[in-house]
Amino acid sequence: MTNSITLNTVRFIALLLMQVVIFNKILLLGFVNPYPYVIFILLFPIKNERWIFMLLCFLIGLTLDMFGNSGGSHAAACLLIGYLRPFILESCFGLNYIHQNLKLNNAPFKQLTIYVVLMCFIHHITLFSLEVFEINYIKFIVSQTLFSGIFSIATILLSLSLFKKGN
Fold it and tell me: Is residue 130 part of a domain?
């Protein structure tokens, strides 16, 4: 238990620092920005208390909002994917999730990719919709979601494969 708490604390702090110091400075083509901090929400242990998980989702989003002066859009996007996570896990992994024996490190790549894609695009469409908050900019929201989503998904899948246990 203590090992899990330590690992998640280190993951929380490291991903926040990397997002603020490194990834927020990357602007591919002038507007595409990766958001790999979502890894924390993706990899948080399934068996932990739900209210703790939701609180941590809010805290990671709120911290990024404070550093990026984004008015709560990161917190809302993180809370939404934190809330939807059990439903997405069940739809992607089925019985493994229902019987609580799912280990994302050992998950088939196809199912893991679908999980990451769904979570990232839900996060990104929420984030950019709340940042702009005007229907006239729907083309901008869709392009931001698409391009930042692809960049984030590539970054997340690369990170997960590099730090996979057993490699």
Answer: yes
Amino acid at position 26, single letter? I
Integer Cα distance of 113 and 111 in angstroms: 5
pTM of the model: 0.90
Looking at the domain assignment, is residue 120 inside a domain? yes
Decide if 65 contacts 75 (C-beta within 8 A).
yes
Which amino acid appears at position 129 of this protein?
S
* Residue 73 β-bridge partners: none
Residue 159 CB coordination number (10 Å) = 14
* Domain membership flag for residue 148: yes
Q: What is the pLDDT of residues 69-80, one digit of tens each?
A: 888 999 999 999
Closest-CA residue to 114 (of 76, 74, 156, 82)? 156
In a domain, 82, yes or no: yes
Give the pair of three-digit tokens for residue 3: 């090992």
